[in-house]
Amino acid sequence: RKVLRRLLDRNGYDCMTAADADEARKLLRDKPFAIVLTDMNMPGVSGLDLIMQITAEYPDIATVMITGLDDAKLADAALEMGAYGYIIKPFEPNEVLINVANALRRRSLEIENRNHRVRLEQMVKDRTSELWNAIAQLENAEKELRLSREETIQKLSIAAEFRDDETGRHIERMSRYCGLLAGTMDEDSERVEILRLASQMHDVGKIGIPDQILLKPGPLTPDERVVIERHCDIGYRILVGSKSNLLNVASTVALTHHEKFDGSGYPRGLAGEEIPIEGRIAAIADVFDALTSDRVYKRAMPLGKALDVLREGRGTHFDPDLLDLFLSSFDSVVAIKAQYADR
């Protein structure tokens, strides 16, 4: 121990010695050290035990084993437990100095590498946090945009409905019936949502119908009927040609929601699958809500009677397959009707 201390002191190292592992542990608790040289055989615990403890509790301290045993297995065990070097007694001074220098160099590299890894992990954590914050902000912006878009659609649609005797709740119910029916067809969620929003504009063309016809409380004359049926073409012309897929779907709904499956509807007299699926869905939703809602000129029809009317129109007014899907989801239909009832 004294020989090693003199050797290291002469070569510029600041050294302290300990008689055994307990004293060494006390020194380690009290002062910072860069390297520990330990003999294999000491009073109390062995040098291997001390190396293992130092490696676990003081990972920034390099350790070097010094022993009189030239044993490959012992050397492997020491290195496996974290020793940076293995010196066999008797040793040459240069051998000790080289081992100490190498151990300190390796220690410096490992500390630098560990600190770099910590900085990198923190950077990744910070960047990940920034990314999640950016994603959250984007999602909030998209949510606000969707809400703003839907509110604009509703206000445009209600502007047309205010000229009629229908209500904003009719728009909400009808659009949700459309979304429900589209969802039962296994359409993807984006298409379902687009149809739900687009169907709110099905009657936007009524904004171009004269009040004396639109608000007439009694039956319409044949000429007046021709005029009011123009709302489909008017709505189509208002909405068509947009770069927005939503508005293009809305134009299809506006044009075709009064077409009938047997070809007797208007404005084009389309039949069967000539009628776009959006129009066939909207036809069922619009008629059901009209039948089951109060108007100034009529009372709401009881649900049972309204279902009879829908069934009577199966294959003539309505696409039979879509009507069957609508009727099979009637519990959900009733729930929508209750949730968005007229106030």
Average pLDDT value?
Answer: 86
Structural class: mainly alpha
Tally of structural domains: 2
Instruction: Note the run of SSEs as H and E.
Output: HHEHEHEHHHHHHHHHHH
Distance between the termini: 95 Å
How much strand content do the residues show? under 5%
Total beta strand runs? 3
What's the CATH architecture of the largest domain? Orthogonal Bundle
The CATH superfamily of the largest domain is: Hypothetical protein af1432
CATH fold assignment of the largest domain: Hypothetical protein af1432
The parts where pLDDT drops under 50 for at least 5 residues are none
Please state the CA-atom Rg, rounded to the nearest Å. Answer: 42 Å
Gross morphology:
rod-shaped
CATH class membership of the largest domain: Mainly Alpha
Strand order of the largest sheet: 1-2-3
Count of helices? 15
Helix content, binned percent: 55-70%
**Major sheet attributes:** 3 strands, parallel
Descriptive account of the structure:
It is a single chain. The protein has 15 helices and three strands. The protein is mainly alpha-helical and 343 residues long. It has two domains: 2-122, Response regulator (Rossmann fold); 162-339, Hypothetical protein af1432 (Orthogonal Bundle). It has a three-stranded parallel beta sheet with strand order 1-2-3, with helices on both faces. Helix 4 links the parallel strand 2 (62-67) and strand 3. The model has no long low-confidence stretch (mean pLDDT 86).
